């Protein structure tokens, strides 16, 4: 297993992100699903220079994206978006795509369970076939009930895999499975080596590993038990405390003049309970995360 990271949690140049990750011992990046934002040749060059690789990408399912929507046009555009993310992974010589099928934060269904399941199966089959052609493995990520309503547990993701194709897998997120699974370790065992595509890592409070109540040695031990050898992908989303109880007064960025702020991405971050964090605080979060996990893995990719 090796340390990887998402990069959607802070708005900053990709050059800054890659330099930080490389310095702290991360071996790869699971780049934001924003194909229009990145020049693959440029990003690949940055990764090569830093001695890193692209592990894959993750779909950012903002309001306009929903593969289980009752709106046929929205479903079609969402499928095309996922294909574009797969192409980005392929262009970066990555291996996996984390697929969140529905709009993040949408908890009210559009239609009947039967209709939405059919739409989801149809759309996932289309992106799966494209991914197979590109040599990219897709994993379905269950989210907790406060961020999704259709795929929230490992067994549901496995049911989708069974209807779509043998190479479709599952992505487990430590934060989400701590909420939804009756036994998170049994969920890992249920998915198993053959279906476990990726593992996203944050502590139970969505802070970096080591700042909640997870036993990370046990967590990594169960992953080793099932034979998982992929990435532990950082996806902590630090909350901003606006009260006198705030332990991190340097957390919130107040100087926004030099930041290239994408309003849609900012909304996605805020909807996850965070905000624009200072580089100092964000780097400290990564330092703590790496300090907790690096002693537990071989960190080879």
Automatic annotation (TrEMBL):
Q: Does the keyword Isomerase apply?
A: yes
Any coiled-coil regions, as ranges: none
Q: Give every Xylose isomerase-like TIM barrel domain span.
A: 19-243
Answer whether the UniProt record assigns the keyword ATP-binding to this protein: no
Q: Give any GO molecular function from the UniProt entry.
A: isomerase activity
| Keywords carried by this UniProt record | Carbohydrate metabolism, Isomerase
Q: Name a Pfam family for this protein.
A: AP_endonuc_2
Record-given protein name: Sugar phosphate isomerase/epimerase
| Species classification | Bacteria, Bacillati, Actinomycetota, Actinomycetes, Micrococcales
């Amino acid at each position: 297993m090796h340390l990887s990271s998402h990069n959607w949690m802070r708005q900053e140049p990709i050059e800054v992100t890659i330099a930080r990750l490389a310095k702290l011992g991360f071996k790869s990046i699971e780049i934001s699903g924003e194909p229009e934002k990145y020049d693959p040749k440029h990003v690949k060059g940055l990764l090569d220079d830093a001695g890193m690789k692209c592990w894959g990408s993750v779909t950012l399912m903002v309001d306009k994206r929903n593969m289980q929507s009752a709106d046929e046009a929205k479903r079609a555009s969402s499928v095309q978006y996922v294909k574009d993310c797969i192409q980005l992974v392929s262009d970066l010589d990555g291996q996996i795509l984390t697929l969140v099928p529905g709009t993040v934060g949408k908890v009210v269904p559009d239609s009947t369970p039967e209709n939405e399941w059919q739409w989801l199966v149809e759309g996932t089959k289309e992106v799966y076939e494209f991914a197979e052609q590109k040599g990219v493995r897709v994993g379905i990520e269950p989210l907790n009930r406060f961020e999704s309503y259709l795929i929230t547990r490992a067994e549901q993701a496995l049911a989708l895999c069974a209807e779509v194709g043998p190479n479709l897998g599952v992505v487990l997120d430590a934060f989400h499975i701590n909420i939804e699974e009756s036994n998170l370790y049994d969920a890992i065992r249920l998915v198993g080596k053959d279906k476990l595509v990726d593992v996203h890592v944050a502590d139970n409070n969505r802070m970096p590993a080591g700042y909640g109540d997870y036993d990370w040695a046990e967590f990594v031990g169960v992953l080793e038990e099932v034979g998982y050898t992929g990435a532990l992908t950082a996806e902590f989303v630090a909350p901003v405390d606006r009260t006198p109880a705030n332990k991190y007064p340097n957390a919130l960025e107040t100087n926004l003049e030099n930041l290239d702020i994408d309003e849609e991405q900012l909304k996605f971050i805020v909807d996850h309970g965070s905000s624009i964090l200072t580089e100092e605080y964000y780097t400290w979060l990564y330092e703590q995360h790496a300090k907790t996990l690096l002693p537990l893995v071989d960190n080879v990719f």
